[in-house]
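The protein record filed here.
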Amino acid sequence: MERCGFKVNSTVPFVLLIVTLQCPLSPFPLGGMSKVKSSEGRVDVGGQSLFYRQFQPAEGAASLAVLLLHGIRFSSETWLELNTLERLAEAGYRAVAIDLPGLGNSKEAKAPAQVGESAPGSFLKQVSEGLQLGPAVVISPSLSGMYSLPFLFQHNDLVKAYIPVAPICTEKFTAEQYSSIKTPALIVYGDQDTQLGEVSFNNLKNLSNHKVVVLQGAGHPCYLDKPGEWHSAVLQFLQSL
């Protein structure tokens, strides 16, 4: 066996130790220095505690905040495992994913409305203020539409851009209300999501400033089925803001 230019007899362990110590050590961890830093915490919303995960650039200020919500069978861990949080931070964004009330690590928190009903827009306003997000991009799949849509309409100044992914509750707002929103939007859904995907699109298409991405071969949680295409679409949209 040969290491660092020296021949080592593997039958003499103390010789291997001495030779190894003579090898130059890298000044950085394996894989190089991390480009992102991550943390976990809790934010108070109306006297209740919500869990969140956060990824941001390791150095320098983030160019924009991105708030990631989730569907009823998912949580902030979904965005962690999919590497969406890391991808966003690597691109220079502050990515914050929360666990909605009653789900994930926020199970003890009570939702401000029944599933399928619109939550008060003030709910995400408190989240935004508690996390000091400022005007943020909101990524909102499925269930989270009951939170994000009222927030979009009632506190539009806090929404830099909107990325709905087949959200619920789109039928609760009129075409005129949608057309009054000037916020840039990226409507994403899977072509196999022939129920909520198509229903939500038929309402969201009335947004006055929107783009559409249909992920081919993807179902309702289309970001899970086509993660590469999902990340590319989101990052390209963010770069256009």
In short: The radius of gyration is 22 Å.
